[in-house]
Amino acid sequence: MSGFVEKPEPIQVPGLVHLHTGKVRELYRSEAGDLVMVASDRVSAYDWVLPTEIPDKGRVLTQLSLWWFDQLADLLPHHVLSTGLPAGAPDDWAGRTLICKSLNMVPVECVARGYLTGSGLAEYEETRTVCGLALPEGLVDGSELPAPIFTPATKAAVGEHDENVSYEEVARQVGAETATQLRQATLAAYTRARDIARDRGIVLADTKFEFGFDGDTLVLADEVLTPDSSRFWPAEEWEPGRAQPSYDKQFVRDWLTSAESGWDRRSEQPPPPLPQQIVDATRTKYVEAYERLTGTTWS
Fold it and tell me: Cα Rg for the chain, rounded, in angstroms?
């Protein structure tokens, strides 16, 4: 059992139809047929959406996504139409709201990995493969791969794990031509972002993208290259053979699995509220990632 500890009631806005409450985002449809995505300050860990929010997280995710969409614009079109607030929207939606083109979404999490860690490491230790792709012997946690790899996953409902699948399974589900497009777009976007991040002293270990079609055109959608969808490591501290320091919610995960939290993740009990020092430390990491990548001061 998992999901929301306390599922929020969506804000109702005249002219907008609420479509979905995700782990982080609320999704609406406008009268014009566009999608309105509002990033909250919610944080999830171990398949639970926690009762404690991280201040500014939604704004950081939104503003960082916009910055990355610009960096990738010559490679891939994106779905953002406007950052303006819909009429009647609450003031606190400012900076966390995107009005986006409605797309025919592809039901695949498009994951690119340049370094071995997480579920990829777990599979490699058992089979020396990741999503059916053979990798060399001798790799450890944090190893850079010989070349970036495309390791897709099926999209899961809130509270469930995405499941890694082979490229062949993606081709079976969406067709060979679309699978080829997804792999090429994912690896091109990852490679560009990896090089940009590297120039700013950050290792982009892996990331996931979501795509949809606008007619016959493949379009980059959802959020992109944020600490929620990516593993960012400080380059100066990168050391294969151990877990890496990271710009994400690792503080949250570490506290939840510590004796201090008193929570057993194997139980069906929801996790407890986060203490203020964990909230503050997590916010600091999100802001630091934004500032280091974009070269601008968060305000």
Answer: 19
Q: Looking at the whole model, is its pTM more than 0.85?
A: yes
Contact 293, 64 (CB under 8 A): yes
Give the span between the Cα atoms of 248 and 285, in whole angstroms. 6
Q: What is the DSSP track for the chain?
A: --EESSPPPPPP-TTEEEEEE-SSEEEEEETTS-EEEEE-S--EETTEE-SS--TTHHHHHHHHHHHHHHHTTTT--B-EEE-SPPTT--GGGTTSEEEE---EE-SEEEEEEEE--HHHHHHHHHHSEETTEE--TT--TTPEEEEEEE--EE---TTS--EE--HHHHHHHH-HHHHHHHHHHHHHHHHHHHHHHHHTTEEEEEEEEEEEEETTEEEEES--S-TTTEEEEEGGG--TTSPPP-SSTHHHHHHHTSTTT---TTSSSPPPPPPHHHHHHHHHHHHHHHHHHH-S---
pLDDT tens profile 81-110? 999 999 999 999 999 999 999 999 999 999
Q: From CA 24, how far away is CA 86, in angstroms rounded?
A: 19
Closest CA to 187 of 56, 58, 75, 69: 75
Scan for tokens 């997480």, then name that residue: 118
| 262 close to 250: Cβ distance less than 8 angstroms | no
